[in-house]
């Protein structure tokens, strides 16, 4: 970082509002304390993650044993494995209630809805299926935000050599089950987003955070249009900053103008996972590198580079006030149950 953005990085309180703390160790918490970050760990129904109850209990146990439990917040979720059984919706809402009672600040749904889960006829179950309405209604009535990863980056529907950023090529080469280009008779990119928007049209009081730039990551114009259409929404940046950097190669001003225009509705997150496979010092180095380089993209106007973006790009050079919103204030605004130590 340049000296100016480094000074800002050290001065501004920050949230990483999208990590996955899946093991009982404090590696990320320790580096977060040094760098002035608070954290939000998101419980998610991922096949190779621990069970969702175990994910929640990891956070609760960590918070019982650290000096400042407000450093680590979490978003809860519910299990879809029993979908279709007569009492599954009641059970899902009870899971949500328990998660909220233990300190959860929102509820997450993941891409398994639309990409894995199927109904009794073998059709993919989309996120706007009527069976989910009681859950969305409960969240809207209780004022609990829904944080949703619906669909995938548009690159998911392209061959590996046509993808725009290296991190997507890396992920989909390792997870071909989610690389929709390789699969026939699956819902399209457009169908995922239509289903997501149907939820918002049906439940206009639902507070909704479109994770990963709401899967419109490839176009700041598309993100802007989506935010304009749905006033109760925000987006997070988790694992999608590189897509803004990619667009900044040829459309720097457009990206900067987007962030300036929607500065009150963008939340920073890294999507870093701690599953215990890396040594503590390795994951600390990795996440700090991501934090500093991504902060620098927003804070500095210098020409920069990133490992997953093929060409250099110019940073956005945003004001201190905007940086405070993206990296701190907006997390508090859209997750009002958040515990804040600052």
From TrEMBL:
<dbReference type="Pfam" id="PF04909">
    <property type="entry name" value="Amidohydro_2"/>
</dbReference>
<dbReference type="InterPro" id="IPR032466">
    <property type="entry name" value="Metal_Hydrolase"/>
</dbReference>
<dbReference type="InterPro" id="IPR006680">
    <property type="entry name" value="Amidohydro-rel"/>
</dbReference>
<dbReference type="InterPro" id="IPR032465">
    <property type="entry name" value="ACMSD"/>
</dbReference>
<keyword id="KW-0456">Lyase</keyword>
<feature type="domain" description="Amidohydrolase-related">
    <location>
        <begin position="120"/>
        <end position="336"/>
    </location>
</feature>
<protein>
    <submittedName>
        <fullName>Amidohydrolase family protein</fullName>
    </submittedName>
</protein>
